[in-house]
Structures are given as structure tokens and as C-alpha cells.
Amino acid sequence: MGSGAFALVLALALAAFVSPAERKCQLSGLWRNEQDSLMEISAVRDDGDFHGKYLTRVTLTGGCARASPLKGAQQQPGEGGWPTFAFTVRWDKFSNATTAFAGQCFVDAAGKETLTTVWLLREAVGSLEEDWKATRVGRNVFTRKRTPKGKILPSSSPSCEDASWPAP
Length: 168
Hints:
With 168 residues, the chain is mostly beta strands. It contains one helix and eight strands, in the order αββββββββ. Helix content is 8%, strand content 38%.
């Protein structure tokens, strides 16, 4: 085996054993979950704060969804760990609900970034007697959606207008 081929095999072998600290997970960018909802996160500031927009494909009423603001914070990972984060989404202009997400970012050996989250959605109800039905709990897994530079998150779902939904 030539020295070039040996170097390539050695580099590939070493890449498979890269520690989590060396495979950084960046929250900023565009993400898609298993329900086809889109989330765009701005650059994470040095203190961990971030903001962005969330465009859901799932609504409480089944109607038109608009891109809604999100705000959150990322906890810097400990030695050899992956960052945890939390954010809230205030469902803007189409729902009287707020959702809080908490999760963790992972990068596999092939470099695929995944965000695993759990969420609590709180819907406004008319009385204390209805409080029992106001909170829903769920789980979402997001994967990075590769995009050209620039913001591409649509402002509304396809049910609102004839804008095409970005392809997976």
C-alpha cells in the first residue's frame, strides 16, 4: 500500500474515534422535525442566548400557521458532553398557546447533527375547571436542513398561501 493510501486509511480510522468535544453541535441554522415543522435559530451568543423563528405544520385548530418567534438559551457542554438547551415559542397570531422545549444536541460519527427535545404546550382555557386539559406533552427530533446562505424560513405554512414548502 502506498504512503498516500496509508495516510487516507489512517485519517478515516482516526475520524471514527473523534470525541464529542471535537464534533461540535451548532444550534444555529435551519432544522426540520419528524412532523415537517421548520425551526430557524440565529447565531448563539457567547452567553448562550439565541432567538429565531418556528413554523409548525401542526396546529391546535388545523388552520393556517404563521412563523412564530422563539427565544432560548444553550448550556455549554461539560467535558466530553453535548450541549443542552431550552427555548419557548409564542404561537404568534394563530393560537393562544405557548410551548416550552428542552433538549440536547448530538453529532454522530458521520457528522449528522440531531436535536432531541421534549415539549410542554400550554393552551389558554376559559376556567380553572378546564385546567386539566390545557397542557400537552410531546417529543420531537430535529435534523439539520442544509440550505443556501440566508434566511429561507417561510413566513407561513402552505395552507395560508401558495408559497411552496421547502423540500426535505
